[in-house]
Design goal:
19% strand, 294 residues, four-stranded antiparallel beta sheet, six-stranded mixed beta sheet, 434 Repressor (Amino-terminal Domain), rod-shaped, alpha+beta
Length: 294
Protein backbone atom coordinates (compact mmCIF):
# COMPACT_ATOMS: atom_id res chain seq x y z
CA UNK A 1 0.00 0.00 0.00
CA UNK A 2 1.47 3.32 -1.13
CA UNK A 3 1.01 6.15 1.38
CA UNK A 4 3.13 8.86 -0.23
CA UNK A 5 5.99 8.38 2.21
CA UNK A 6 8.51 7.80 -0.55
CA UNK A 7 7.23 10.66 -2.67
CA UNK A 8 7.37 13.13 0.22
CA UNK A 9 10.94 12.13 1.08
CA UNK A 10 11.99 12.33 -2.56
CA UNK A 11 10.38 15.76 -3.01
CA UNK A 12 12.06 17.06 0.13
CA UNK A 13 15.43 15.74 -1.06
CA UNK A 14 15.05 17.39 -4.45
CA UNK A 15 13.94 20.60 -2.79
CA UNK A 16 17.15 20.55 -0.77
CA UNK A 17 19.11 19.96 -3.96
CA UNK A 18 20.47 16.61 -2.79
CA UNK A 19 21.15 13.68 -5.01
CA UNK A 20 21.04 10.13 -3.64
CA UNK A 21 24.83 10.18 -3.58
CA UNK A 22 24.76 13.37 -1.53
CA UNK A 23 22.23 11.90 0.86
CA UNK A 24 24.33 8.74 1.18
CA UNK A 25 27.30 10.85 2.26
CA UNK A 26 25.18 12.78 4.79
CA UNK A 27 23.29 9.86 6.34
CA UNK A 28 25.90 7.11 5.78
CA UNK A 29 23.03 4.96 4.47
CA UNK A 30 23.73 2.97 1.33
CA UNK A 31 22.26 4.45 -1.80
CA UNK A 32 20.24 1.33 -2.63
CA UNK A 33 18.45 1.54 0.73
CA UNK A 34 17.67 5.24 0.21
CA UNK A 35 16.25 4.41 -3.21
CA UNK A 36 14.25 1.56 -1.69
CA UNK A 37 12.72 3.96 0.86
CA UNK A 38 11.71 6.41 -1.85
CA UNK A 39 10.12 3.58 -3.85
CA UNK A 40 8.61 2.13 -0.66
CA UNK A 41 10.27 -1.23 -1.36
CA UNK A 42 10.77 -2.09 2.27
CA UNK A 43 11.00 -5.83 1.64
CA UNK A 44 14.58 -5.35 0.35
CA UNK A 45 15.67 -3.80 3.64
CA UNK A 46 17.63 -5.75 6.34
CA UNK A 47 14.69 -5.52 8.71
CA UNK A 48 11.97 -3.28 10.11
CA UNK A 49 14.29 -1.88 12.78
CA UNK A 50 16.75 -0.65 10.16
CA UNK A 51 13.95 0.63 7.95
CA UNK A 52 12.65 2.85 10.75
CA UNK A 53 16.16 4.09 11.52
CA UNK A 54 16.84 4.86 7.84
CA UNK A 55 13.53 6.72 7.46
CA UNK A 56 14.24 8.80 10.56
CA UNK A 57 17.73 9.74 9.33
CA UNK A 58 16.43 10.45 5.82
CA UNK A 59 13.64 12.68 7.15
CA UNK A 60 15.98 14.62 9.46
CA UNK A 61 18.48 15.09 6.63
CA UNK A 62 15.89 16.65 4.29
CA UNK A 63 14.14 18.68 7.02
CA UNK A 64 10.94 16.66 7.48
CA UNK A 65 9.24 15.61 10.74
CA UNK A 66 10.72 12.18 11.49
CA UNK A 67 7.78 11.11 13.68
CA UNK A 68 5.29 11.93 10.95
CA UNK A 69 7.31 9.95 8.40
CA UNK A 70 7.52 6.98 10.75
CA UNK A 71 3.75 7.11 11.26
CA UNK A 72 3.26 6.96 7.50
CA UNK A 73 5.65 4.01 7.38
CA UNK A 74 3.74 2.16 10.10
CA UNK A 75 0.47 2.68 8.21
CA UNK A 76 1.98 1.29 5.03
CA UNK A 77 4.02 -1.58 6.45
CA UNK A 78 2.16 -2.83 9.56
CA UNK A 79 1.46 -6.25 8.03
CA UNK A 80 4.97 -6.55 6.65
CA UNK A 81 6.55 -5.80 10.04
CA UNK A 82 4.32 -8.34 11.72
CA UNK A 83 5.36 -11.00 9.23
CA UNK A 84 9.05 -10.17 9.66
CA UNK A 85 8.76 -10.24 13.44
CA UNK A 86 7.06 -13.62 13.27
CA UNK A 87 9.88 -14.91 11.06
CA UNK A 88 12.45 -13.55 13.50
CA UNK A 89 10.73 -14.97 16.54
CA UNK A 90 9.94 -18.36 15.00
CA UNK A 91 13.50 -19.72 15.31
CA UNK A 92 13.70 -18.32 18.84
CA UNK A 93 10.37 -19.98 19.71
CA UNK A 94 11.53 -23.29 18.27
CA UNK A 95 14.80 -22.94 20.14
CA UNK A 96 12.96 -22.17 23.39
CA UNK A 97 10.65 -25.15 22.89
CA UNK A 98 13.63 -27.37 22.18
CA UNK A 99 15.42 -26.06 25.26
CA UNK A 100 12.25 -26.52 27.33
CA UNK A 101 11.88 -30.12 26.17
CA UNK A 102 15.53 -30.77 26.85
CA UNK A 103 15.20 -29.19 30.31
CA UNK A 104 12.12 -31.27 31.11
CA UNK A 105 13.88 -34.41 29.91
CA UNK A 106 16.86 -33.60 32.11
CA UNK A 107 14.51 -33.14 35.07
CA UNK A 108 12.47 -36.29 34.44
CA UNK A 109 15.32 -38.65 33.48
CA UNK A 110 16.95 -38.79 36.96
CA UNK A 111 13.52 -39.42 38.52
CA UNK A 112 12.86 -42.24 36.06
CA UNK A 113 16.23 -43.79 36.83
CA UNK A 114 15.60 -43.57 40.58
CA UNK A 115 12.11 -45.07 40.14
CA UNK A 116 13.50 -47.97 38.11
CA UNK A 117 16.20 -48.54 40.72
CA UNK A 118 13.58 -48.63 43.49
CA UNK A 119 11.43 -51.06 41.47
CA UNK A 120 14.43 -53.36 40.99
CA UNK A 121 15.17 -53.29 44.74
CA UNK A 122 11.53 -54.05 45.58
CA UNK A 123 11.50 -56.93 43.10
CA UNK A 124 14.69 -58.41 44.56
CA UNK A 125 13.39 -58.09 48.14
CA UNK A 126 10.05 -59.64 47.15
CA UNK A 127 11.82 -62.54 45.43
CA UNK A 128 14.07 -63.20 48.43
CA UNK A 129 11.16 -63.01 50.89
CA UNK A 130 9.10 -65.32 48.72
CA UNK A 131 11.88 -67.92 48.70
CA UNK A 132 12.38 -67.53 52.45
CA UNK A 133 8.66 -68.02 53.12
CA UNK A 134 8.58 -71.02 50.79
CA UNK A 135 11.34 -72.64 52.85
CA UNK A 136 9.47 -72.01 56.12
CA UNK A 137 5.85 -72.69 55.14
CA UNK A 138 4.30 -76.14 54.77
CA UNK A 139 4.54 -77.98 51.50
CA UNK A 140 0.98 -78.72 50.29
CA UNK A 141 1.89 -82.07 48.83
CA UNK A 142 3.37 -83.54 52.02
CA UNK A 143 1.91 -85.40 54.98
CA UNK A 144 3.18 -86.54 58.39
CA UNK A 145 2.29 -89.59 60.38
CA UNK A 146 2.81 -91.04 63.81
CA UNK A 147 4.14 -94.47 64.78
CA UNK A 148 2.62 -96.29 67.69
CA UNK A 149 3.77 -99.71 68.86
CA UNK A 150 0.41 -101.44 68.97
CA UNK A 151 1.99 -104.77 69.97
CA UNK A 152 3.70 -103.55 73.10
CA UNK A 153 0.65 -103.77 75.40
CA UNK A 154 -0.06 -107.29 74.14
CA UNK A 155 3.54 -108.41 74.83
CA UNK A 156 3.37 -107.00 78.30
CA UNK A 157 0.09 -108.85 78.92
CA UNK A 158 1.59 -112.13 77.70
CA UNK A 159 4.59 -111.73 80.02
CA UNK A 160 2.23 -111.10 82.94
CA UNK A 161 0.24 -114.21 82.05
CA UNK A 162 3.35 -116.40 81.80
CA UNK A 163 4.56 -115.29 85.24
CA UNK A 164 1.42 -116.67 86.98
CA UNK A 165 1.25 -120.29 88.11
CA UNK A 166 -2.49 -120.74 88.52
CA UNK A 167 -4.60 -121.29 85.43
CA UNK A 168 -7.56 -119.57 87.03
CA UNK A 169 -5.51 -116.56 87.89
CA UNK A 170 -4.34 -116.31 84.29
CA UNK A 171 -7.92 -116.31 83.08
CA UNK A 172 -9.20 -113.95 85.74
CA UNK A 173 -6.50 -111.32 85.37
CA UNK A 174 -7.30 -110.54 81.73
CA UNK A 175 -10.98 -110.22 82.72
CA UNK A 176 -10.11 -107.73 85.46
CA UNK A 177 -7.82 -105.69 83.15
CA UNK A 178 -9.94 -106.18 80.03
CA UNK A 179 -11.31 -102.65 79.86
CA UNK A 180 -7.99 -100.79 80.25
CA UNK A 181 -6.30 -103.18 77.80
CA UNK A 182 -9.03 -102.70 75.23
CA UNK A 183 -8.87 -98.92 75.60
CA UNK A 184 -5.09 -98.96 75.23
CA UNK A 185 -4.88 -101.16 72.12
CA UNK A 186 -8.10 -100.17 70.40
CA UNK A 187 -6.35 -97.39 68.49
CA UNK A 188 -3.97 -98.39 65.69
CA UNK A 189 -1.47 -95.92 64.21
CA UNK A 190 0.52 -97.55 61.43
CA UNK A 191 3.44 -96.21 59.41
CA UNK A 192 2.65 -96.86 55.73
CA UNK A 193 5.47 -95.39 53.62
CA UNK A 194 8.03 -92.60 53.10
CA UNK A 195 8.55 -90.30 50.13
CA UNK A 196 11.30 -87.69 50.47
CA UNK A 197 10.46 -85.56 53.49
CA UNK A 198 6.95 -87.08 53.69
CA UNK A 199 6.02 -89.90 56.06
CA UNK A 200 2.57 -91.46 55.67
CA UNK A 201 0.59 -93.01 58.54
CA UNK A 202 -2.83 -94.56 58.99
CA UNK A 203 -4.92 -94.05 62.14
CA UNK A 204 -7.75 -96.55 62.69
CA UNK A 205 -9.96 -97.95 65.49
CA UNK A 206 -10.05 -94.53 67.14
CA UNK A 207 -13.23 -92.71 68.12
CA UNK A 208 -11.57 -89.31 67.97
CA UNK A 209 -8.61 -87.63 66.37
CA UNK A 210 -6.83 -85.17 68.65
CA UNK A 211 -3.30 -83.83 68.34
CA UNK A 212 -1.03 -82.39 70.99
CA UNK A 213 2.24 -80.80 69.87
CA UNK A 214 5.00 -79.88 72.35
CA UNK A 215 8.37 -78.26 71.67
CA UNK A 216 11.59 -78.31 73.65
CA UNK A 217 13.19 -75.83 71.23
CA UNK A 218 12.11 -73.46 68.51
CA UNK A 219 10.27 -75.34 65.75
CA UNK A 220 7.99 -74.16 62.96
CA UNK A 221 4.61 -75.99 63.03
CA UNK A 222 1.77 -75.99 60.51
CA UNK A 223 -1.25 -78.30 60.35
CA UNK A 224 -3.40 -78.55 57.20
CA UNK A 225 -6.47 -80.69 56.51
CA UNK A 226 -7.45 -82.19 53.18
CA UNK A 227 -9.03 -78.92 52.04
CA UNK A 228 -5.71 -77.18 52.81
CA UNK A 229 -7.25 -75.26 55.70
CA UNK A 230 -4.79 -74.32 58.44
CA UNK A 231 -5.83 -76.02 61.69
CA UNK A 232 -3.33 -74.38 64.02
CA UNK A 233 -5.20 -72.09 66.46
CA UNK A 234 -6.03 -68.68 65.04
CA UNK A 235 -5.34 -65.84 64.81
CA UNK A 236 -1.68 -66.83 64.53
CA UNK A 237 -2.17 -70.03 62.53
CA UNK A 238 1.00 -71.78 61.39
CA UNK A 239 4.00 -70.28 63.20
CA UNK A 240 7.15 -71.05 65.19
CA UNK A 241 6.63 -72.56 68.64
CA UNK A 242 9.25 -71.62 71.21
CA UNK A 243 10.80 -74.01 73.71
CA UNK A 244 8.20 -75.12 76.27
CA UNK A 245 5.21 -74.22 74.06
CA UNK A 246 2.41 -76.68 73.42
CA UNK A 247 -0.80 -76.69 71.42
CA UNK A 248 -3.83 -78.99 71.31
CA UNK A 249 -5.87 -79.44 68.15
CA UNK A 250 -9.06 -81.46 67.66
CA UNK A 251 -9.18 -82.69 64.06
CA UNK A 252 -11.85 -85.35 64.54
CA UNK A 253 -13.94 -83.69 61.83
CA UNK A 254 -11.43 -84.51 59.08
CA UNK A 255 -10.01 -87.73 57.71
CA UNK A 256 -6.58 -86.41 56.71
CA UNK A 257 -4.02 -84.02 58.16
CA UNK A 258 -0.53 -82.96 57.33
CA UNK A 259 1.80 -81.75 60.08
CA UNK A 260 4.78 -79.71 58.93
CA UNK A 261 7.56 -80.00 61.52
CA UNK A 262 10.49 -77.62 61.20
CA UNK A 263 12.71 -79.36 63.81
CA UNK A 264 11.55 -82.89 64.63
CA UNK A 265 14.36 -83.35 67.16
CA UNK A 266 12.78 -80.72 69.43
CA UNK A 267 9.12 -81.53 68.66
CA UNK A 268 6.83 -84.16 70.22
CA UNK A 269 3.56 -85.12 68.55
CA UNK A 270 0.89 -87.02 70.47
CA UNK A 271 -2.12 -88.58 68.76
CA UNK A 272 -4.98 -89.13 71.17
CA UNK A 273 -2.41 -89.05 73.96
CA UNK A 274 0.04 -91.51 72.31
CA UNK A 275 3.52 -90.29 71.40
CA UNK A 276 4.34 -90.40 67.71
CA UNK A 277 7.74 -91.91 66.91
CA UNK A 278 9.32 -90.41 63.80
CA UNK A 279 10.13 -92.92 61.07
CA UNK A 280 13.28 -90.97 60.08
CA UNK A 281 15.39 -88.03 61.19
CA UNK A 282 14.88 -85.75 58.19
CA UNK A 283 14.75 -82.01 58.96
CA UNK A 284 12.26 -80.62 58.23
CA UNK A 285 9.67 -83.27 57.49
CA UNK A 286 5.96 -83.71 56.89
CA UNK A 287 3.83 -86.12 58.90
CA UNK A 288 0.67 -87.17 57.01
CA UNK A 289 -2.01 -89.06 58.92
CA UNK A 290 -5.00 -90.64 57.25
CA UNK A 291 -7.83 -91.18 59.73
CA UNK A 292 -10.03 -94.21 59.07
CA UNK A 293 -13.23 -93.93 61.06
CA UNK A 294 -14.91 -97.27 61.92
Amino acid sequence: MVTGLGDRLREARIAKGYSLDDLQSITKIQKRYLSGIENEEFGSMPGSFYVRAFIKQYAEAVGLDADEMLLLYRDSSGKLELKEEEQQHAPQTLSRRSNLRSSRLNEVLPKVIVALFIIVIIAVVYFLNKNNIANKTPDVGTEDSLIIDKDKPEDENKNDADSTGDGKDVEEEPEESEEPEDSAVEQELTHESDAGVDSFYRLSKAEEFKLEIKTSGDSWIGVLDRSRTERMPQPRGAHTLAAGDSVEIDVSDTDWVRIRVGRPASTEILVNGELLEYANDRTPQNIIIEYKKE
